Amino acid sequence: MTDTIVKTTARNRLPKRASPYIFALYMATIMAFLMSLVITLAEFGMGPDYMTNVMNAYKVTLPAAFVCILVVRPIVIRLVGLTVHGH
Known about the structure:
- By secondary structure, the protein is an all-alpha fold.
- 79% of the residues lie in helices and 0% in strands.
- The protein has helices at residues 3-11, 19-44, 50-83.
- α2 (19-44) packs across α3 (50-83).
- The longest helix has 34 residues, at 50-83.
- 8% of the residues are buried.
- The model has no long low-confidence stretch (mean pLDDT 89).
């Protein structure tokens, strides 16, 4: 990579303190979409309105998943610390 690309990439990144929120956003985005796909399929089956139903569910699940991850993440980190040996 050239120096220009490295400088541009570094300049466009968020500060480290934003990491928990960015993690929660990415995790919520992916998990909410996957769960919307699965739960919509289980409830309504595969039909002509499947993706419409998925996206309607996703509108609700994404904000809920984001908040849940923000709340649960510290608990999970603590539980992992209690169950996994350090290096």
